[in-house]
UniProtKB/TrEMBL annotation:
<comment type="function">
    <text>The RuvA-RuvB-RuvC complex processes Holliday junction (HJ) DNA during genetic recombination and DNA repair. Endonuclease that resolves HJ intermediates. Cleaves cruciform DNA by making single-stranded nicks across the HJ at symmetrical positions within the homologous arms, yielding a 5'-phosphate and a 3'-hydroxyl group; requires a central core of homology in the junction. The consensus cleavage sequence is 5'-(A/T)TT(C/G)-3'. Cleavage occurs on the 3'-side of the TT dinucleotide at the point of strand exchange.</text>
</comment>
<keyword id="KW-0233">DNA recombination</keyword>
<dbReference type="GO" id="GO:0000287">
    <property type="term" value="F:magnesium ion binding"/>
</dbReference>
<feature type="binding site">
    <location>
        <position position="66"/>
    </location>
    <ligand>
        <name>Mg(2+) 2</name>
    </ligand>
</feature>
<dbReference type="GO" id="GO:0005737">
    <property type="term" value="C:cytoplasm"/>
</dbReference>
<dbReference type="InterPro" id="IPR002176">
    <property type="entry name" value="X-over_junc_endoDNase_RuvC"/>
</dbReference>
<dbReference type="GO" id="GO:0006281">
    <property type="term" value="P:DNA repair"/>
</dbReference>
<feature type="binding site">
    <location>
        <position position="7"/>
    </location>
    <ligand>
        <name>Mg(2+) 1</name>
    </ligand>
</feature>
<dbReference type="GO" id="GO:0048476">
    <property type="term" value="C:Holliday junction resolvase complex"/>
</dbReference>
<dbReference type="InterPro" id="IPR036397">
    <property type="entry name" value="RNaseH_sf"/>
</dbReference>
<keyword id="KW-0479">Metal-binding</keyword>
<keyword id="KW-0238">DNA-binding</keyword>
<keyword id="KW-0540">Nuclease</keyword>
<protein>
    <recommendedName>
        <fullName>Crossover junction endodeoxyribonuclease RuvC</fullName>
        <ecNumber>3.1.21.10</ecNumber>
    </recommendedName>
</protein>
<feature type="active site">
    <location>
        <position position="66"/>
    </location>
</feature>
<dbReference type="GO" id="GO:0008821">
    <property type="term" value="F:crossover junction DNA endonuclease activity"/>
</dbReference>
<dbReference type="GO" id="GO:0006310">
    <property type="term" value="P:DNA recombination"/>
</dbReference>
Length: 157
């Protein structure tokens, strides 16, 4: 099963693609979708195009996305929510089932501790997927963590 994990953000969206086969997880791809355009419609178009390309390239069978339930910066909650909507719509139009996870659930699934620090989660993602290099940037590591969470909390094969 191919799983896409998405960490939505205001200017960068982290993603991670993993494959689960017989309980083993393998990293297929990770990175960020950056959208710094001032024109909001151009941002949405570029994000939509990038997500569509990921779907065509990897053909995920399920995707996980981080829930927004608490935000420190009130000015960014609406733009992040809008991007989540664009992403969720594209994946729904492609008949890809969705799972939503809170940051606490993601940390718990990856590190075993819901209050783990960001660097602890990144280290565990690297170990779980058997990667040699550090995952950069942080948003991409978060996308992989979300994909791992989805793989570990659903009976997907």
């Amino acid at each position: 099963m191919i799983i896409l994990g998405i960490d939505p953000g205001t200017t960068r969206i982290g993603y991670g693609v993993i494959k689960k086969t017989s309980g083993k997880l393998e990293c297929l791809d990770y990175g960020i979708i950056a959208h710094f355009e001032k024109d909001r419609s151009e941002q949405i178009r570029r994000v939509g195009e990038s997500i569509s390309n990921l779907i065509k390239k990897h053909k995920p069978q399920i995707f996980g996305i981080e829930k927004i339930f608490f935000f420190k910066n009130q000015r960014t909650i609406i733009p992040v929510s809008e991007m989540r909507g664009v992403i969720m719509t594209l994946l729904a139009l492609n008949n890809i089932p969705m799972q939503e996870y809170t940051p606490l659930q993601i940390k718990q699934a990856v590190s075993g501790y819901g209050r783990a620090e960001k660097n602890q989660v990144q280290r565990m993602v690297k170990i779980i997927l058997g990667l040699k290099e550090n995952i950069k940037p942080d948003d991409a590591a978060d996308g992989l963590a979300i994909a791992i969470c989805c793989a570990n909390t659903r009976s997907v094969e």
